[in-house]
Backbone:
């Protein structure tokens, strides 16, 4: 009798067209399909960006998809850390030697300029996305120079 109930249960489960192992695979597929974070310019949050500070100094930031970054200033000094795009208008980062994230208000203004405002001192910097072709040309120029 137990065998008959077990076979009936298996047949009923099979008739549903799924198994218990299908559910986790579907959940993983949904997680992978989740949209990537979006930056203020509407593009992906990761990539290479040139930040021009209010005083004219520039920093090249490479934001990796894994949430880490490398920032290189004009003097060649390198800083590393982690980052998070909380929304298109809120970018947060933390240098490796810092304890807490700092979140910057970001927007693309009416003139089409992407700005980032430091919450500590109110300094407004501009942000430019470096597209792949430009990044390759900059690397080539540096190698030649």
Residues:
């Amino acid at each position: 009798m137990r065998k008959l109930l077990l076979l009936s249960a298996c047949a009923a489960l099979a008739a549903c067209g799924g198994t218990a192992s299908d559910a986790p695979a579907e959940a993983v597929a949904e997680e992978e399909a989740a949209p990537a974070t979006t930056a203020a310019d509407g593009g992906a949050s990761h990539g290479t960006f040139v930040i021009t500070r209010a005083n004219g100094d520039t920093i090249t930031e490479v934001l990796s998809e894994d949430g880490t970054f490398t920032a290189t200033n004009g003097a060649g000094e390198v800083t590393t850390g982690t980052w998070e795009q909380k929304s298109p208008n809120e970018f947060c980062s933390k240098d490796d030697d810092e304890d807490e994230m700092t979140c910057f208000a970001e927007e693309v203004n009416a003139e089409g300029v992407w700005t980032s405002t430091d919450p500590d001192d109110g300094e407004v910097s501009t942000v430019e996305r470096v597209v792949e072709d430009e990044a390759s040309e900059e690397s080539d120029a540096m190698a030649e120079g």
User: Anything to note?
Assistant: The chain has three helices and eight strands. The CA atoms of residues 83 and 93 lie 4 Å apart.
